[in-house]
Design brief:
mainly alpha, MIP, membrane, elongated, transport, Noduline-like intrinsic protein 14, MIP_CS, Glycerol uptake facilitator protein, 0% strand, single chain
């Protein structure tokens, strides 16, 4: 949440390749910039993971990456669902002018927190391919890595698609409610 507020005005707070890909698909982000953003996201994850490995004595039991606790299938389904929820919220707070933008970081942060509570014990609740690839590369732990690449991409694309389906108008909420009030009052006047 803090990172969203601190660099959101510079980079759009793109820390997640799956979110960046989804924004590009739904024309909310320039496609030509996607490869550079993904490279930067992966480099950030690799550098952070390398720093953790240097600073702490990380045993295989204390691996800081994501590995399925259940089956790959369970983890894949959970990663799709929680990534869907994350992208749905991100789409709502960052692409819709009717949303209260100042609270976007809180909404996204709370969604991540809830997703971790629900899916963390089974899948590790990655929701971010870069977050899983960095530790896997640094510690050479590739078990189930495909789950954390495929699941978040499918989930975020589905989440952005679903939000775009329900966003039926670009009018601000105030304008919509005024029109609704006007229609209601004119129908009451016509009935009397």
């Amino acid at each position: 949440m803090v990172m969203v507020y601190s660099v959101g005005h510079i980079s759009g707070a793109h820390f997640n390749p799956a979110v960046t890909i989804s924004f590009a698909i739904f024309r909310r982000f320039p496609v030509r910039q996607v490869p550079l953003y993904i490279i930067a996201q992966l480099m950030g994850s690799i550098l952070a993971s390398g720093t953790l490995a240097l600073v702490f004595d990380v045993t295989p039991e204390a691996f800081f990456g994501t590995v399925p606790a259940g089956s790959n299938g369970q983890s894949l389904v959970l990663e799709i669902i929680i990534s869907f929820l994350l992208m749905f919220v991100i789409s709502g707070v960052s692409t819709d002018d009717r949303a209260v933008g100042d609270l976007g970081g809180i909404a996204v942060g709370m969604t991540i927190l809830l997703n971790v509570f629900v899916a963390g014990p089974i899948s590790g609740a990655s929701m971010n391919p870069a977050r899983s690839i960095g530790p896997a590369l640094v510690k050479h732990q590739f078990e189930g890595l495909w789950v954390y690449i495929v699941g978040p991409i499918i989930g975020t694309i589905a989440g952005a698609f679903a939000y775009n389906l329900i966003r039926w108008t670009d009018k601000p909420l105030g304008e919509l409610t005024r029109v609704g009030s006007l229609i209601k009052s004119s129908s009451k006047n016509n009935a009397s």
